[in-house]
Amino acid sequence: MPISPPHLEDHQRFEIDFDEHYISEGDVCALIPGMTTGRLKMLRFNGTGPEYLKPTPKTVVYSERRVREWLERTARTSTREAG
Description:
Elements: E1 22-23, H1 25-31, H2 37-46, E2 53-56, E3 59-63, H3 64-73
Antiparallel strand pairs: 1-3, 2-3
């Protein structure tokens, strides 16, 4: 019995904007003081870091705009705040 291909709606959509500026893990670390590639990988593993694209099994890139948006969402006004 033939297996039908998965439907696009079955997968999370990440629309690519070719006017967007994509950056490497090292660029993300340079953008965020104190960030290391190891810490960035852990955030990726936990699903708590910025969204990323993985065009090949060993290549990870980030939208600079989305990294900045993720960083802005981490803003706090007190050490008592969760997170």
